[in-house]
């Protein structure tokens, strides 16, 4: 019987067997390395991540008890006694005559935008007038403001901002100098933080 395609008397191909064993050795080593890595990873997963599936959500809060239902009675109320109420606040003793008390924004006052305020305004404060420049240059509480020879509190003006329907003027420290509302086309009326009436027009 002759060995599968070998010529009689030929020696077995030793080189091929050695190459095959070398390749098999590398393959066996690679397989062993992969198997060892898989076992290590499986062990890490079971010890580090094994508790993730068993975490349950927190229990729901206890139900809230309903408010007790009472009965409604019908009757006449007595007239209020003036002594039941606190004393009304007094006016500022340092305020000058003719000053206005703080008021709510007029119902007809429009919402403002920085573009509707930007420009140069004629300001009136305590019977004196000056000019205020309100460019849209970012600064302080909103935008830079430039008072031009303004009296009193307006002389400290450094910035301005729009807050809904309100135009607020600020000093260099961020303190409010005056709050105004639009009272018509190209006109604002309000008061300074000291309670003095102020208006802007153009």
Automatic annotation (TrEMBL):
Top-level division of the source organism's lineage: Bacteria
GO molecular function list: endopeptidase inhibitor activity
Pfam families according to UniProt: Inh
Subcellular location field: Cell outer membrane
Recorded topology in the membrane: Lipid-anchor
Sequence ranges of Pro residues compositional bias: 56-65
Compositionally biased tracts (Low complexity): 86-100
Protein name: Outer membrane lipoprotein omp19
Organism: Brucella intermedia LMG 3301
